[in-house]
Amino acid sequence: MAKLLGWAGALWLSWLGWKIASAEVELTTDTTADKPLGAGAAALIQVINPKPWTVALAVVGVFMSSSGAPAWLLALVFLLMAIPCMLLWAWLGIQARSWLHSARALRRFNQLMGALLAGSGWLGLLG
């Protein structure tokens, strides 16, 4: 069953990678309609994001039972790790705007990201 799920995951990531790599590129220079998210909306996005919940459940399940660490300490460690990572992610997004200034550059970036996504699915099957 695990092998079947691995193949299904690799095929799914390949399809997603293809969709990203072959997506139409449209650059818009009109930023008047862009409105940044408020603090409440940004927090809500984080609350409904399944990835951190999955990680948090794994950490609680493994580290709280084996190390006896209190939940507040694990939450503090997560916070101290998350803040620099989010700042780096935001900075990279700002920098990407200057790198991806043309439709051709954005298309090449999408092709690279699509190939990396598809490749990551197949690399998972090698192990």
TrEMBL record:
A cellular-component GO term for this protein: plasma membrane
TM annotation in the entry: 71-94
Key word Membrane present: yes
Keyword Nucleus: no
Topology relative to the membrane: Multi-pass membrane protein
A biological process from GO: cysteine export across plasma membrane
Protein location: Cell membrane
Alphabetical keyword list: Cell membrane, Membrane, Transmembrane, Transmembrane helix
Gene Ontology molecular functions: amino acid transmembrane transporter activity
PANTHER family: ARGININE EXPORTER PROTEIN ARGO, ARGININE EXPORTER PROTEIN ARGO-RELATED
Name of protein: LysE family transporter
Organism per entry: Halopseudomonas pachastrellae
